Amino acid sequence: MKVLVLEDDPALRFALTQMLEEDGHTVSEAADIPTACDLLNEVKPDLLLLDLMIGPADSIQVADLAGYRVPDADVIYLTGSNKFPNGELFGFSRNASWVLRKPIDFYELKAMIDHIGRSGRSQTAAPPDGSTPS
After folding, report:
1. In this structure, are residues 75 and 58 in contact, taking their beta carbons and an 8 Å threshold?
2. Which residues, 6+ apart, have CB-to-CB distance to 55 below 8 Å?
3. Which domains does the chain show, CATH number per domain?
């Protein structure tokens, strides 16, 4: 599966990327919203892992753009914010699949990603040998 990770914390972004690559996913990383939007247009990801708050801005605009560019892509928001404590985020972001609170439980995140892969929506996982799928 092609995954776009938008996370402004370099340590967490590195850990997420490592976990995803070890599981055979192709990962594109961004630390800011403009880079994430550029990558979204370039790589057409199957899954977006978006830190909800990137500095003073929120990443909902990236998910909105994904809704037009890659409408079948799933979005998992990662947040330490209490900005949407009662699930209101699902009303603002039509393609939000899940919201995962920080600190991240990597087992829970992996289970979510596995579920997305089994759902049949995202079928572009990289082969274990690292070659490009045909």
Report:
1. no
2. 8, 32
3. 2-118 (3.40.50.2300)
